[in-house]
Amino acid sequence: YFKGFMIRVPPGEATDFPAVNKWFDAMEELESYQLTKSDYYTHAFDLPPQLGGCRYEPGCEPYEKAINGERTLDGSRGSWELPLIPHNGGVEPDWTWAAATDGVAQREAVERVSANHEAIVKFACRGAGKKGVPPVMAPLSDPNAVPSEVVQSAVDACLRMVLQALLEGVESQNDPMTTLATTIVKEGGADFAMGVIDSLAYLRDRVGVPRDMKLPAARQLRAHLNWAIAKLSDAKDAAA
Fold it and tell me: pLDDT tens, 150-159?
């Protein structure tokens, strides 16, 4: 992320560090390690405040963008877009031990959000609210932020649609989400719709691993939130 230096590689790929990769493979068989293992994205944002900052090196930008969900390593698409590319395009090995069968990751994401749905909706609405005072050093942390109450019902509806898509697939929810997005824009206006988009993006960027869920579930939730954001953006652009 900061150095553009890749040590850990997906299974079967060539590496200059085979022994280090074997060590990681062995570590990931331990339940104690599995329960505490984080992902690159979470590390990249929780380390700088603890260390007083991290220095970027030339050549790191493609890895930074891929880990942040902006672009895949080849630059062809967003790395947090559906369908998800295995191993995030080669940047970060998938946790096959955490999602051995289809649907496990999606169901974990739904369970984790459903378990605290009301509080999560309010948390997401900080994206359309007011920043906290005083600010804190961690860029994704704002414990004093004030959530917007205006967009709360719309964010709630979108998040329910996201959970339904996680369970049933986005194909079954494309039309309902498009209708919801169109209604939000028509009844609330462009600024209101932007507040909903900002709220979903705020939540997406703050899904932590392993605090909130394991990486496979986090990848699914982030990507499905982007699916909803794209629908809202399309409806907003169409009404412009």
Answer: 999 999 999 9
CA distance 49 to 212: 20
pTM of the model: 0.95
Dihedral sign, Cα of residue 95, residue 98, residue 100, residue 101:
negative
Comparing C-alpha atoms, which of 212, 106, 121, 188 is closest to residue 158? 121
Q: Minimal CA–CA distance to 195: which of 139, 153, 239?
A: 153
pLDDT digits (tens, 9 = 90+) for 161-214: 999 999 999 999 999 999 999 999 999 999 999 999 999 999 999 999 999 999
The closest of 138, 139, 1, 9 to 57, measured between CA atoms, is 1
Q: Return all residues near 143 (Cβ < 8 A) that are at least 6 apart.
A: 132, 136
Give the distance, in angstroms, between the CA of residue 42 and the centroid of all CA atoms in the same chain. 10
